[in-house]
Amino acid sequence: MSKVRVLIVDDSAVMRGLLTAMINGFPDLEVVGAAPDAQVARELIKTVNPDVLTLDVHMPGMDGLEFLDRLMRLRPMPVVMVSSYTGATTETTLKALELGAVDFIGKPRPDAAHSMDSYAEELADKIRAARTARVRGRSLARPPVAPPAPRPVSQSVAAPTTTAASPLTGKIIFLGASTGGTEAIKEFLLGIPATCPPILIVQHMPESFTQSFAKRLDGLCAPRVIEAQGGERVEAGTVYIAPGHSHLLIRRAPSGLQTELSASDPVNRHRPSVDVLFDSAAQVVGRQAVGVILTGMGKDGAQGMLRMRQAGARTFGQDEQSCVVYGMPREAFLIGGVEEQAPLDEIARKVMAAASR
């Protein structure tokens, strides 16, 4: 099998050298070029024809976002953003994913030698996944879904007064995603009404991103979206995003169902883990749960979804054609965890239909 050909775009010579050494340390990966800016990158793309591009946000001249936007319109290809995790860069990285980047990773710290090996493994995994990802060019992408009308101010700033479950059925929705999931979750939630059952979500994402991600979704979607803090009463009309530092679970308390956070060891190399969320759904909610697994690399969530289905839950998986990376949904489907596969643009409707029964 041929090597994955990688082009590095970063204005720092030190960072280009460090990333090159890391990537070339894997026998199935090869750096075929390194560019300090967008202009050089554009010429190298023509000459070396890379499979995957790693891209920094901050560069001289044309910044990473503008370059990415043009690239996805003119020559769509898999892009992994490599940038520092700071407040401003968090928003920029989320924008890059919206523009078509497959995934992102923080920059390695040359002074943190003890973590270099694990960082290199994570970077290599993301590059491999990007190589197989379905990339949709900006001009070829489906028209964006119009966001719902803004919620009344009182609903946006105050906790809803609804009961701890869907008013009609008591159903609760549990969702997991990874690579490609930020945009998939957004599209899913754009199809969900404000009066939805409670929704608990795990998206593999560093802790510096989850609050910004929840805030972004809250401004776009009809339901209220928050980053879970642990101990919240699970209420209809509210979406709970797992924080990047902890597992998210559901538990019973005297006052009703509540969120719970756990700093226990990573599961499937992830914290938060989809399996942990789904396992708690199977144990605590059982047949009143509806499980959803969207695009993502690896197998996190597959076993948990199977246990949900065995406990009587309805379960749905994103189909291969609409996934950025058909990893997690595939693994769940192969072991029998997924009751029904569907395109991303149909899953919200199917899930709401299941929750209304």
TrEMBL record:
EC numbers: 3.1.1.61, 3.5.1.44
Reactions listed under catalytic activity: L-glutaminyl-[protein] + H2O = L-glutamyl-[protein] + NH4(+); [protein]-L-glutamate 5-O-methyl ester + H2O = L-glutamyl-[protein] + methanol + H(+)
Location(s), subcellular: Cytoplasm
SMART domains: REC
4-aspartylphosphate PTM positions: D56
SUPFAM superfamilies given in the database record: CheY-like, Methylesterase CheB, C-terminal domain
Keyword match Cytoplasm: yes
General function of this protein: Involved in chemotaxis. Part of a chemotaxis signal transduction system that modulates chemotaxis in response to various stimuli. Catalyzes the demethylation of specific methylglutamate residues introduced into the chemoreceptors (methyl-accepting chemotaxis proteins or MCP) by CheR. Also mediates the irreversible deamidation of specific glutamine residues to glutamic acid.
Active site residues according to the UniProt entry: S178, H204, D300
One BP annotation, GO: chemotaxis
Gene Ontology terms for molecular function: phosphorelay response regulator activity; protein-glutamate methylesterase activity; protein-glutamine glutaminase activity
Enzyme class: hydrolase
PTM summary: Phosphorylated by CheA. Phosphorylation of the N-terminal regulatory domain activates the methylesterase activity.
This protein's domain notes: Contains a C-terminal catalytic domain, and an N-terminal region which modulates catalytic activity.
PROSITE patterns: CHEB, RESPONSE_REGULATORY
Domain of life: Bacteria
Domain Response regulatory as annotated: residue spans: 5-122
Domain CheB-type methylesterase as annotated: residue spans: 167-357
Extent of Low complexity compositional bias: 152-161
Pfam family for this entry, one: CheB_methylest
Protein name: Protein-glutamate methylesterase/protein-glutamine glutaminase
Annotated InterPro entries: CheB-like, CheB_C, CheY-like_superfamily, Sig_transdc_resp-reg_Me-estase, Sig_transdc_resp-reg_receiver
Gene field: cheB
Stated family: Belongs to the CheB family.
